[in-house]
């Protein structure tokens, strides 16, 4: 629904409300016309049902109002003496139209001015408490702070798998929900199922509250994954469906490219406008390395350096004459065994391949050495190079021209380690558009900016008109993981529009290590730590416990003092 449709819908609701309640307003010593004036009628209604005026604000908050409307329908009935279970049922399950009955049909009803607002039963008290706890939590969750858990290792060393974050929505400006009908505080699907927790219609126009700061380079940002259509995020080849922006899966990455930047990646390092991007000192880039061992077991190296992301394989060797035999090469071809030669001279060939025991025996192979593929920080790679148990450590940079890399179009031979240059669009800025750079910006033009794009010969048509340039309607960002060889990020799916930005992670309140044992499953040194900042990570868990103990101690002291 666009703005005009929402205005019409709002006015229709106001007319229906007036028609359903104007006599009830009169019975409460108000004027009939007050039931028809938008917003003002809600303020007066709060007085009639003896509730605070600020409930009116809650009526205009998406999702929150879904909880509050049934409460108000029941409150209207009770304000006129209709307190039975049947009255409550009819007020709720007629979606408020029970007020028409009260207004025109019900006899001998009178407004109860000083109605007792306390629930009459223990169950009613519990229901009332739970409802308003949900309302308060939904407001905080939607507009201020949202909990988030780190599911992958793309920002390993800065944020760990199992970190529980608090994400601030006020830093970059909280978004008003576009999805108006949804279960409170449930993001995509009903827990334990793939059933959507929301209705796609109606949708509110985009609106964001003013921000306290703009996104800065190298900020860690939570955003809605722009290309998400997966019913089950853990099944990339499963069923798909269209999702509203605010119901797409939440991702967390580091913003390495800002609107207006020219970005490129060289040997895994990001360059902005030709200058190498300098990460904060807490950030640790990771790459996969090929590590050749000096006769020791892979497990001993894994344990020594606490390596968790890894796989190992043998380097096989055979005489060059044997390797070059037609029978040898034909066997590899028939069995579809791919070979990666690591060393070759006139006497011997060393290679890696997926070789089973039968093939190993038939081809008369020997094992030359163990080769590990391990994910390391650059500091750890340097340390391992001086280890006598390690023969060599080589960064596993890609030289592929066929990787699944944005924009996935002919003529673009970029890979994960060498990419670009690419211009990151900025709101209000224009660029030339042609058939050569269209693959980079086509999804942006269509999915994010709402245009139709076609190509006719060498001409680009935007919304049916020949276009040689385009002016962007919003800012875009380039999000990447520090774990460069194990991160699903912008290199795979491109730009992140500003309307997809959720917020800024500010605090780790809990961290759980599934590989730990017993009490060590909790990473105690990460509890109550900040996400940003420089220097050594500092936990504020002990100060928090001290403040908490002082608070409860003070409350107990006050209570004892009152009883003496």
UniProtKB/TrEMBL annotation:
Q: Where are the transmembrane segments?
A: 6-26, 53-73, 85-105, 126-145, 537-554
Q: How does it sit in the membrane?
A: Single-pass type II membrane protein
What is the E.C. number? 3.4.21.89
GO molecular function terms listed in the Swiss-Prot or TrEMBL record:
signal peptidase activity
Q: Which UniProt keywords apply?
A: Hydrolase, Membrane, Protease, Transmembrane, Transmembrane helix
Query: Which reaction is recorded as catalysed by this protein?
Result: Cleavage of hydrophobic, N-terminal signal or leader sequences from secreted and periplasmic proteins
Q: Which residues form the Peptidase S26 domain?
A: 125-278, 435-510
| Presence of keyword Lyase | no
Q: Where found, per UniProt?
A: Membrane
| Pfam families the record matches | DUF5684, Peptidase_S26
Is Transmembrane helix one of the keywords? yes
The family database entries (InterPro entries) matched by this protein are listed as:
DUF5684, LexA/Signal_pep-like_sf, Pept_S26A_signal_pept_1, Peptidase_S26
Say which enzyme class the record assigns.
hydrolase
Q: Which CDD domains does this chain map to? A: S26_SPase_I
**Family classification:** Belongs to the peptidase S26 family.
NCBIfam families referenced in this protein's UniProt entry, alphabetically? sigpep_I_bact
Q: What protein is this chain from?
A: Signal peptidase I
Which source organism?
Olleya sediminilitoris
């Amino acid at each position: 629904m666009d703005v005009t449709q929402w205005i019409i819908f709002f006015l229709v609701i106001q007319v229906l409300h007036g028609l359903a309640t104007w006599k009830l307003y009169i019975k409460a010593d108000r004027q009939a016309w007050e039931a028809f004036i938008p917003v003002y009628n809600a303020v007066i209604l709060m007085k009639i049902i003896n509730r605070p005026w600020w409930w009116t604000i809650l009526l205009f908050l998406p999702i929150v109002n879904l909880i509050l409307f049934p409460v108000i329908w029941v409150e209207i009935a009770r304000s006129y003496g209709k307190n039975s279970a049947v009255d409550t049922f009819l007020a709720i399950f007629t979606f408020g139209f029970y007020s028409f009955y009260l207004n025109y049909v019900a006899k001998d009803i009178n407004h109860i001015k000083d109605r007792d607002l306390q629930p009459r039963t223990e169950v009613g008290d519990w229901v009332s408490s739970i409802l308003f706890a949900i309302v308060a939590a939904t407001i905080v969750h939607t507009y201020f702070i949202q909990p988030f858990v780190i599911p992958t290792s793309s920002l390993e060393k800065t944020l760990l798998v199992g970190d529980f974050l608090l994400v601030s929505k006020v830093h970059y400006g909280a978004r008003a929900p576009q999805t108006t009908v949804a279960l409170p505080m449930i993001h995509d699907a009903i827990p334990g199922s793939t059933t959507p927790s929301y209705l796609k219609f109606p949708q509110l126009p985009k609106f964001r509250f003013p921000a306290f700061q703009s996104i800065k380079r190298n900020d860690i940002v939570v955003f809605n994954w722009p290309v998400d259509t997966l019913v089950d995020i853990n099944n990339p080849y499963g069923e798909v469906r269209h999702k509203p922006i605010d119901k797409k899966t939440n991702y967390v990455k580091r913003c390495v490219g800002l609107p207006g930047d020219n970005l490129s990646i060289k040997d895994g390092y990001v360059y902005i406008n030709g200058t190498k991007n300098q990460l904060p000192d807490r950030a640790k880039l990771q790459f996969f390395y090929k590590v050749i061992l000096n006769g020791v077991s892979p497990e001993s190296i894994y344990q020594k350096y606490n390596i968790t992301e890894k796989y190992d394989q043998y380097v096989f060797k055979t005489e060059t004459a044997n390797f070059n035999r037609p029978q040898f090469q034909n066997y590899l071809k028939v069995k579809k065994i791919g070979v990666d030669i690591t060393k070759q001279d006139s006497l011997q060939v060393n290679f890696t391949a997926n070789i089973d025991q039968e093939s190993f025996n038939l081809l008369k192979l020997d094992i030359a050495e163990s080769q590990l593929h391990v994910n390391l920080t650059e500091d750890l790679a340097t340390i391992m190079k001086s280890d006598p148990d390690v023969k060599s450590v080589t960064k596993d940079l890609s030289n592929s021209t066929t990787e699944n890399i944005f924009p996935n179009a002919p003529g673009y031979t970029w890979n994960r380690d060498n990419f670009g240059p690419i211009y990151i669009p900025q709101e209000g800025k224009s660029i030339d558009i042609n058939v050569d750079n269209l693959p980079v910006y086509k999804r942006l033009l269509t999915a994010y900016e709402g245009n139709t794009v076609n190509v006719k010969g060498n001409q680009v048509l935007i919304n049916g008109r020949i276009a040689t340039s385009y002016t962007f309607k919003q800012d875009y960002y380039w999000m990447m993981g520090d774990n460069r060889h194990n991160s699903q990020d912008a290199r795979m799916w491109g730009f992140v529009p500003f309307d997809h930005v959720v917020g800024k992670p500010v605090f780790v309140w809990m961290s759980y290590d599934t590989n730990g044992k017993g009490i060590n499953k909790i990473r105690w040194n990460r509890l109550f730590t900040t996400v940003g900042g420089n220097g050594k990570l500092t936990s504020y868990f002990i100060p928090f416990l001290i403040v908490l103990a002082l608070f409860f101690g003070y409350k107990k002291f006050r209570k004892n003092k009152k009883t003496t």
